[in-house]
Design goal:
The protein is of the alpha/beta class. Helix content is about 50%, strand content about 20%. The protein is built from twelve helices and eight strands. It has helices spanning about 15-20, 25-35, 40-45, 50-65, 85-90, 105-120, 155-165, 180-200, 210-230, 235-245, 260-270, 280-300; strands at about 1-5, 70-80, 95-100, 120-125, 140-145, 165-175, 250-255, 310-320. The chain is globular and about 65 Å long. About 40% of the residues are buried.
């Protein structure tokens, strides 16, 4: 597990002046927002590195790619966050060794720490997705989860992915918001946050209210979130973008409709109340509900609901050249 010695240090406590400057500088906003979230990100999104999330990550990969000869020898995660996608894919048998990159030093730090705890062979760099700091023809797989919508020039980033891939190598990106899905998810989140923070002002519900300082900090982060979330995607447009970047065998897939309508209010509620109120029983009940609604999406709603109405988009493509995986 290595990190480049010249990479900058995390800055988890941005000042008001820095936040103000970030409102006019999307890449600074990316760094500040994700450095702020890095140490709590796994808890916020219920991320783990056990069977539950290994199955989730591998399921996204299989849904996007279908059958593929595994494992890939070396994989890169772009916009790694805490390493959720690549580390769980490695544990799921998709890749042997890995590299993680993110614009946020805090996220790279946590991703490498997670890799070390799991005993995985991973190195990391603080890096811009539009200028990936690895040589041509280095990786067999490039992957990412919920990253493309943060990148100013998505097509340039996809071209960079193809550059660092070996001929016949594949990229897989999952967890990208569709335009329709993002609209209803945002509205549900905003309403849930307002209702929860107002109702918990009542004296008999004060135990369910986070300290005001934490709520204020969350609100500042939410202001930056509007700056860091740059894109939503129509699946057909995402396919055209990947083909324009030079990829072949391009395919976009979508998932989560009923699961998103349920999940966004739940996640927003959880962010607004103290962690100790969210018992193990509660978390397991929400997880089972999500599984049930995901089954409904996959087996029923996918057949009748247009793909652009689902919340999550996935895109995969291959670098032209040698035998493809």
């Amino acid at each position: 597990m290595t990190v480049h010695p010249d990479d900058p240090a995390p800055n988890p406590h941005a000042t008001e002046a820095e936040v103000e400057a970030a409102l006019k500088d999307t890449k600074l906003a990316q760094v500040l927002y994700h450095d702020w979230e890095a140490e709590t990100y796994d808890d916020k999104w219920s991320i783990s590195y056990d069977e539950r999330c290994i199955a989730y990550a591998r399921g996204r990969f299989d849904l996007a790619v279908g059958d593929a000869p595994l494992p890939y020898e070396r994989a890169l995660e772009l916009g790694c966050g805490t390493g959720f996608f690549l580390l769980n894919l490695m544990q799921g048998g998709v890749a042997k060794t890995g590299s993680v990159t993110d614009l946020s030093p805090g996220m790279v730090k946590v991703a490498l720490r997670n890799a070390e705890h799991l005993g995985l062979d991973v190195d990391g760099r603080v890096a811009d997705a539009e200028t990936i700091p690895y040589d041509d023809d280095t990786f067999d797989l490039v992957c990412g989860h919920a990253v493309l919508h943060h990148i100013p020039d998505v097509e340039l980033a996809l071209k960079e992915c193809l550059r660092v891939l070996k001929p016949g190598g594949r990229f897989v990106f999952a967890g990208e918001p569709t335009t329709v899905g993002n609209f209803y998810a945002r509205k549900l989140g905003q309403v849930t946050w307002k209702v929860t923070t107002e109702v918990t002002k009542l004296p008999f519900l004060s135990g369910w209210r986070r300290p005001q300082t934490e709520l204020d900090e969350s609100s500042r982060a939410a202001a930056l979130e509007a700056v860091v979330d740059l894109h939503t995607f129509d699946p057909s447009d995402l396919e055209k973008m990947a083909k324009s970047a030079g990829a072949v065998d391009v395919q976009a897939t979508t998932e989560e409709f009923a699961a998103a309508l349920w999940g966004w209010p739940v996640r927003t509620f959880e962010a607004a109340v103290p962690d100790e109120k969210l018992t193990v029983g509660y978390r397991m009940a929400q997880y089972r509900a999500w599984l049930g609604l995901s089954w409904l999406d996959e087996n029923v709603l996918r057949k009748v609901v247009p793909r652009e109405f689902f919340y999550n988009a996935m895109i995969t493509g291959v670098k032209p050249g040698a035998a493809q995986k």
